[in-house]
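Blinded run. Sample ID left blank on purpose so nobody reads anything into the name before looking at the predicted structure. Input follows.
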Amino acid sequence: MIYENLSAMKKAYEGILDVAEDQVKVLDEKALRQSLIDDLISTAVFSPVQELKDAASWLIRRSGAAVGIMSSSIQSLYDAMGRKEVKGFTVPAINIRALTYEVAQAVFRAALKNSVGPVIFEIARSEIDYTLQRPIEYTSAVTAAAIKTGFRGPLFLQGDHFQVNAKKFAADPDKEVRAVKDLIWEAIEAGFYNIDIDTSTLVDLSKSTVSEQQEANFSLAAELTAVIRDLEPAGITVSVGGEIGEVGGKNSTVEELQAFMDGYLEALKKYGDNLKGISKISVQTGTTHGGVPLADGSVAQVKLDFDTLEKLSEVARSRYGLSGAVQHGASTLPDEAFDRFPAIGTAEIHLATGFQNIIYDSVHFPPELRDKIYEYLKREMTGERKEKDTEEQFIYKTRKKGFGPFKQELWQLPPETLKQISQELENQFTFLFNKLNVVKTEAVARQYVKLVDVPLKMPTALKG
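Blinded prediction complete.
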């Protein structure tokens, strides 16, 4: 249900939540989880009235904090990985493009059953646009899912690929950098205390030395890091990620990592003494976001350079104290590849398209809705179709852009349909958690990550 007005919302939470002076107390957690949280997140996402959206989001976030669910930075755990006190697992970072409330519940269920500690929920700059999910909506949906499933502890929300667009930067660098800075501000306000800066688009391989090739990358990464440090709340050190090679481009090298890090650390000094730098480094080792679709719509197998990934992770830790290297574009890799990542010391792995594929390709996904979305893509996305693309390739590459326009129809699928698709996703999350060796890591995460309750001002509409 979507609340039509504030009176209806207040009446619904009466006796369940006690709301006063910027705080929420949960009086009846069973009632909150049973139905109220469903209506609050529906209102936060779909209400046409902004003050209702704001009120619902605030109630969700403060209710979460009241029961011990708090947006957190993974920085201290990554520092421990950099010191080699903690090792043996790879942290999964999961991009949720559709059905965020349902998919996040599947993640939490799998995590709770397997005592999984560090799991990151992330969304990229591009995904925010085409899935029509601003950071506050994403935070609200994931927090609501945590409440619904009974999760407790740190909630790792991450801005993935907060990327500088190379073409827009070339046309108007100040405007493009300002857009990224504004997004960083919006994300931190929404509780994203983990942010991956991606200025690797500015690497210029035509320059004569590796340092010169990386200069624009590390200089702007340092500037954006300083912005993050200025914006982070008291008691929080935002975990910042850097990137040395654009995913889908040429494979990264140890020399490039060293050139970036040495230049970055030097550039960071001009913004202040002892300013905390990045905690991890994203590299390119042979993958492509979403995989490479073949003519029949299936995905080509890639040859991942695990040896290079291992070397980059080790240099990142031993020389710079980082948690290690980060692997992007991995969700469409063959199943047998995933246990290699913890074995070679990969710090973090980003997973997105594989979960999108489970949703679209599920036998439980309504064929008529799938056809409706595909017809929309063929009508509205023709400009993205390459001359040599088969229809299957075109659909595979663009179907992620159907999630935004059809968001409400997807969220309002029959409960049994959502349950069946969610179970398929939960099974895959369980598989990945085992492969990445994050099973039974809950105690480790709690040991290193301390919960910080960042105050949130009550929306004016809820006062009085």
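Unblinding after everyone has recorded impressions. Residues 6-67 form one domain.
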